[in-house]
Amino acid sequence: MSCKPYDEFIMKYIDGELNDIEQAKLIQHVSECEACRSEFEDLKNVLGALEKSKELEPPADLQTSIMAKVCAIDIYNKKSREKKLMMLYFISTITLTILILSLALIFKNNILDLMLYMEVPVEAAYWTYGVLTRISAEAAMIYGYVLYFKNLLADFYYVFAGLFIIALMSKVYEINGINTVKNGSRVD
Ligand SMILES: [Zn+2]
């Protein structure tokens, strides 16, 4: 019995080109011929392994979707950094303004003297002095309200102050928590 035609049948089987009669003949032959059965089984195993590796191949858009996620995280981190910088800038500006204003209010008489000494137009110098005096009066009034509020609430004032600090701290903690999640391994 010659095995030569069955080599060809096996190759055609692998390519999916075997017709029913040829397939019947091949199956009949491999059931009787040890050499051809071994070759046939080996090729079928290889074919199966190839099919399986095709299934395991990542989808074509996987890289795109990963890159999109990486970009999204980058943009988020950048925005969050920008937001923090903006916040820092905002707080610094307010602090600096309050500091300069406080100094100006405390030393408004000296500032008037200095402006007159530096020969700033008298009108401008007194206008500035007037503005500072008015702000000083407003500040004194606000401070008066704060004192009144404090006396009104007596001991509760400290409770409210404590609650405010706790709320502020929990807010800061919350922001940090979100960042930890976004920067961490939770990329799904
Ligand atoms: Zn054979």
Beta strand %: under 5%
Largest sheet: none
Mean pLDDT: 82
Q: In which range does the helix fraction lie?
A: over 70%
Shape descriptor: rod-shaped
C-alpha termini separation: 61 Å
Concise description?
The chain has two domains: 4-56; 62-183, no CATH class. It is 87% helix and 0% strand. The protein contains seven helices and no strands.
Provide key terms for this protein:
188 residues, binds zinc ion, 2 domains, mainly alpha
Notes on the protein architecture:
There is one protein chain. 87% of the residues lie in helices and 0% in strands. It contains seven helices and no strands. It has helices at residues 4-15, 20-32, 34-56, 62-106, 108-117, 122-153, 156-183. It is rod-shaped, with a radius of gyration of 42 Å. The mean pLDDT is 82. The structure holds zinc ion. Residues 3, 6, 29, 33, 35-36 line the site of zinc ion.
